[in-house]
Specification:
Blueprint: H1 2-12, H2 15-48, H3 51-77, H4 92-120, H5 129-156, H6 159-188, H7 193-220, H8 226-237, E1 244-252, E2 258-267, H9 272-290, E3 292-301, H10 306-322, E4 327-334, E5 338-345, H11 353-367, E6 372-379
Parallel strand pairs: 2-3, 5-6
Antiparallel strand pairs: 1-2, 4-5
Length: 383
């Protein structure tokens, strides 16, 4: 049935509308299943007087709220760009996820307190066949739920649904723990309900804190994955018409709103019209193949100037003697012996900038020529 619905969405709607519909489908299915889970666990938790089952029920309540926020989040994220939000509203998906995280933290704190009270003053819990049956059904529903979220997250590449799916699969272990504790108490009479409830509360707090960290990371502007960077670099390296590239920067405004900028090195002898045709082709290629809005900046290189090439080669060799990982770009030789370039500092290389620049300038003036040096330090955190 899930596959059939996804096929219908793909036939009827655009890619952006598909994302909204699939996200809302996940929210609706999650909401219905979490209402069933919460109601069942709440009833048997109250009937049995078990704080661990009640904690598990509250965990399902937080999942229920999460499903509501998922519905709202995908609806808001699907809104088109406007005057006040020129890059669209897709980051609202991260905001809704952050709100879910705070709900989870609140639930965890409440049950940490009640479980601690149950440890200090343990009480017998009243178990029946219904308790065990509902807990087993809860485990099966959670397994289905996790797989459902996982499938839909892969369809639309949603970090929010992926995190929710992982949370559902993690909840399987919490309910299994509750079931095992009920079995142990039923057989042995050991009053371990408060300890299990306390452990579940700690787990809920940990899950909430981890989710907050992930969504804040996205809202602040996260580094693209190695796979995403690799695809972009591989494509740039395959354009035979350009000399090279540098300063690739990627900006994420939501799961489907990725913008990037890059400096493209071209032959200085090209006329502007031809150079524009080349970079325009690259930008359209990125949008079509990678769904990335790329903006290219032209850097003309005077490859037919023997003096320029000689200095460039000398400079590259000198930098390797300082550190093999050092790279430079945007080299210019201006009037009055002015040598200008950007020097890329590797992330792992820790330097005192003032001292380092003085060392580099001294070596260049001694080994290459008495230039006036204009060096801009550059840090590329995508490497």
């Amino acid at each position: 049935m899930l596959k059939r619905l996804i096929k219908q969405f793909k036939k009827r709607y655009s890619s952006e509308e598909q994302r909204k519909k699939i996200g809302q489908l996940a929210g609706i299915l999650g909401l219905i299943s979490n209402i069933i889970l919460f109601s069942g666990k709440l009833i048997i938790g109250l009937t049995a007087g078990s704080v661990s089952i009640m904690a598990d029920a509250m965990n399902s309540l937080s999942d229920m709220i999460s499903s509501v926020l998922t519905l709202v989040g995908f609806k808001e994220a699907a809104k088109p760009a406007d005057k006040n939000h020129p890059f669209g509203h897709e980051r609202f998906e991260y905001i809704s996820g952050l709100a879910v995280s705070f709900v989870i933290i609140t639930v965890g704190l409440q049950f940490l307190r009640s479980s601690f009270g149950k440890i200090l003053k343990p009480e017998n819990i009243h178990l029946s066949a219904w308790v065990f049956l509902i807990l087993i059904l809860s485990i099966l529903i959670k397994i289905w739920q996790g797989k459902m979220y996982g499938k839909l997250s892969r369809e639309i590449k949603s970090q929010t649904l992926e995190a929710t799916g992982q949370d559902s699969l993690n909840d399987v272990f919490t309910t299994v723990t509750v079931l095992l504790s009920a079995v142990i108490e039923y057989i042995s009479g050991w009053r371990i309900d408060g300890f299990i409830g306390f452990a579940l509360a700690v787990y809920i707090l940990y899950s909430g804190a981890r989710m907050i960290n992930d969504f804040v990371y996205e809202l602040l502007g996260s580094r693209p994955s190695d796979k995403e960077i690799g695809l972009m670099e591989e494509r740039l390296e395959n354009y035979s018409s350009i000399l090279g590239y540098h300063d690739l920067l990627v900006h994420d405004y939501g799961p489907q709103k990725i913008f990037a900028s890059v400096h493209i090195e071209v032959n200085a002898d090209w006329n502007l019209t031809y150079a524009h045709q080349i970079i325009d082709r690259i930008e359209k290629d990125f949008e079509r193949e990678l769904k990335v809005e790329l903006v290219c900046h032209l850097d003309p290189i005077d490859i037919n100037n023997s003096y320029y090439l000689k200095v460039q080669e000398q400079l590259n060799q000198l930098l390797k003697t300082i550190d093999p990982a050092l790279k430079m770009h945007d080299m210019r030789i201006k009037e009055n012996m002015v040598l200008q370039f950007d020097l890329v500092i590797p992330e792992k290389m820790k330097i005192d900038e003032k001292k380092f620049l003085a060392e580099v300038k001294e070596k260049i003036q001694k080994e290459i020529g008495d230039y006036q040096l204009d060096i801009q330090l550059d840090y590329n955190y995508l490497l």
